[in-house]
Amino acid sequence: MNAIEVKDLVKSYGSYQAVKGISFSVKEGEVYGLIGPNGAGKTTTLRVLSTLLEVTSGSIMVHGVDLREKPEDVRKIISYLPEDAGAYKHLKGREYLKFIAQFFAEGKEAEVLVARGLEIANLGERIDDKVETYSKGMARRLLVARALMIKPKLAILDELTSGLDVLNAQEIRKVVKSYAAQGTTMLLSSHNMLEVELLCDRIALIDDGKIVAEGTPEELKRKYSANNIEEVFVRAVKE
Amino acid sequence: MSNLSKIAKKEIKEMLTPSTLVPIIIIAIIFASLGDMMGGVEDELSEEQKIAVIMNDEGALGAIAYSVFDQGAEIVYNGTSVQEALDTLEDTDGTSLFIISSDFTENILSNQTGNITVYWMMKGAGIMDSVPSAAASSLLSNVDTTIAATLISYDMSDNASIILDPTSYTETTVFKGKEMDGISPTTIASVLSQQSLVMPLIVMMVIIYSGSIVISSMGTEKENKTLETLLTMPIRRTSIVFGKLLGAAVVGLIMAVIYMIGMSYYYSGLLGSSTVDLASYGMTLDLLDYTLIGISLFAALVSGLGLCMIMGIFAKNYKAAQTMTMPITFLAMIPMLATMLTDFDTLPLFAQVVLFAIPFSHPMIAMRALMFDDYTLVLSGIAYSLIFALVTMFIAVYLFRKDILLTGKVSRTDKKTGFPLIDMMLGMAKKRK
Ligand SMILES: Nc1ncnc2c1ncn2[C@@H]1O[C@H](COP(=O)(O)OP(=O)(O)OP(=O)(O)O)[C@@H](O)[C@H]1O
Ligand SMILES: [Mg+2]
Predict the structure, then answer these.
(1) Which of B162, B190, B218 is the last residue of a domain?
(2) Same domain (yes/no): B358, B226
């Protein structure tokens, strides 16, 4: 069974079609990346897959659950990290993780989740400061921790490492890889081509609401006779 | 253009949008018509008042009293039955019944005061209502002075105190079907208005306060980008909606309790000993009444919060949320002013409809209505506001499942009316087709 099965997905805002019929599937434990120019429809696709926006047409199956029929069942197995997410500012980092954890587990189990979250966030003493005092990157780490600590079956990560410095980004990528190895399927978007190449098992390049290229990084580079994914991006979009 | 005016221009543009202006304009119109209504109440006073007179005295002074009444007012009944007289006054919107006692002339001539029994027909206990008796009172003092003048010019009495004040009154106030002996409408009105001032004020405060909590909470969740995360977690939409409402309601009720404690101190200080015991006139609230008031308050609160939640769904950020509390504030102020100034019963039909339609009115009206056992009004008010609350909850939960919660608007290029709710309904209608 595939973790994600998207068929002919169309998403319109009013009369404007942001996603124009895309199909793709992601295997369990796979890291799948969406790349593409600004406004291509990556975030829209991810938001639809996270049950935030209604499907205009097409079908989506997440771990065998029909998303249009049973969005509440999909919510039980996914975790979504929005591109510009925030945390409750009046809470301390630790309190925020606890607040989230209690919706997924109780008692000891919840403590395990929080402990995992603390490890991913890796904020040291600052975890006991209020979120409003965090820098952009610190807040991002907290939110990545929030998304992954529950070990969802599917993590949907929009611009995973946006705002993170090189070292932090590298570390987060390691975390993502290790959680993927433990069985969490990753669907992510990124503007960092190096990151995509390092992290993703397969990539889809979206332009103007359509998938214009798909494959493993190697396949794509071969197809566009490019040295790296950045060149693939440029060539595919300019075509 | 100076930097100052550039900034000011941006602010004004942000705040002056149809969605902030229209509610205020609507409220202004409602207020204007409310003013008209009150004007209407006052106009009634200047008309010649209708009274009933029962003449039991056959003497000359009684006849003089009668003629004074006849000149100063329109006598709509002059038979002998008190009940018939009161019924006629009820039907003709009359103000008072004067009964001239059978020994009126005889008493005055034997140096005792002549007694007139007065029944005041009290219509409302609002600040603007209690006036009708003023005009009727002047009739009474006319009777007094005319009889005094007669006594002097015909040299009929040599008792100075009788000449100065030849008549005396026994007062009974008839209010909402209750006859209360020995008490004047003014006294009742003042006691009632002090009592029923507290409730509207508290209801208004609670609605405004917890309402703005709900709206701001939605605005903040959107501004801080926490809403999306919340919505993708395995939490039912109803739990999110009701959780937010419950939180706000609890805070609002805590506020109410604090206000009530403060108010009760204020009033016990204010009223002191001068209170008339309304209980002795049957104007009491029992446990059932208090329960009904509680239910009414609860229904109003839930309605208000539901309404705020719906508005909050359209609030894009905290600032927008702040402006959206304005209509709620006004909506809560209208019934407060109305119940303070007048009585529901004395308002013209149009105003009654408006007041009834605002769910916040009902707990404000309930207290006084229950004192006079007007269960129909209270129960129908509760039924209405519960239905209102259910409908708003339903709409709120429905909207929570829609794109509009996050996208803040229905369409990008579709024709729009500028009102998100109307746009949404148009959109739904289109989909049906
Ligand atoms: N709420 C909205 N209402 C109307 N149109 C929208 C809305 N959100 C996005 N769009 C439009 O949908 C298209 C796709 O946007 P989307 O956010 O999915 O792009 P993206 O690929 O994530 O871009 P970026 O790389 O800049 O994040 C854009 O044209 C955008 O203007
Ligand atoms: Mg995006």
Answers:
(1) B190
(2) yes
Give the pLDDT of chain A (239 residues) as one tens digit per residue: 899 999 999 999 988 999 999 999 999 999 999 999 999 999 999 999 999 999 999 999 999 999 999 999 999 999 999 998 899 988 999 999 999 999 999 889 999 999 999 999 999 999 999 999 999 999 999 999 999 999 999 999 999 998 899 999 999 999 999 999 999 999 999 999 999 999 999 999 999 999 999 999 999 999 999 999 999 999 998 87
User: Does residue B421 lie in a domain region?
Assistant: no
Question: Of B159, B190, B221, at which residue does a domain stop?
Answer: B190
Q: Residue A37 corresponds to which tokens in the numbers above? A: 């120019």
Asked whether A192 lines ligand 1 (CB < 6 A), one says no
* Inter-chain residue contact B229 with A80, CB threshold 8 Å: yes
As given in the structure block, the two tokens for residue B162 are 């009788």
SS (H, E, C) B213-282: HHHHHHHHHHHCCCHHHHHHCCCCHHHHHHHHHHHHHHHHHHHHHHHHHHHHHHHHHHHCCCCCCHHHHC
Q: Inform me whether the pLDDT recorded for B48 exceeds 90.
A: no
> Would residue B25 count as lying in a domain?
no
Same domain? B309 vs B374: yes
In terms of domains, do B209 and B293 share one?
Answer: yes
Answer for the pair A20, A210: CB distance below 8 angstroms, yes or no: yes
Taking an 8 Å cut-off on Cβ atoms, the answer to whether B232 and A52 are in contact is yes
Ligand nearest to the CA of A42: 1
Percent over 70 (pLDDT), chain B: 80
Residue B131 lies in a domain: yes
Q: Which domains does chain A have, with CATH numbers?
A: 2-77+152-238 (3.40.50.300), 88-151 (no CATH)
Do the beta carbons of residue B296 and residue B183 sit within 8 Å? no
Does the predicted interface ipTM exceed a cut of 0.95?
Answer: no
The residue whose two tokens read 């120019």 is A37
Beta strand spans in B282-405 (E): none
Q: Which residues of B46-71 are buried (b: 16+ CB within 10 A; e: fewer)?
A: eeebbbbbbbebebbbbebbbebbee
At B348, is the secondary structure helix, strand, or coil? coil
Q: Are B419 and B20 a contacting pair, CB within 8 Å?
A: no
List chain B residues with CB under 8 Å of A103: 233-235
Which residue is closest in CA terms to ligand 1's atom 17? A43
What range does the domain containing B91 cover?
Answer: 46-190
Is the domain of B201 the same as that of B255?
yes
C-alpha distance from B393 to closest chain A C-alpha (Å):
20
Q: Does the pTM exceed 0.80?
A: no
Residues of A in contact with B235 (CB under 8 A): 75, 103
Check whether residue B353 and residue B253 sit in a common domain.
Answer: yes
Specify if B13 maps to a domain.
Answer: no
Half-sphere exposure of B344 (CA within 13 A, CB side): 26
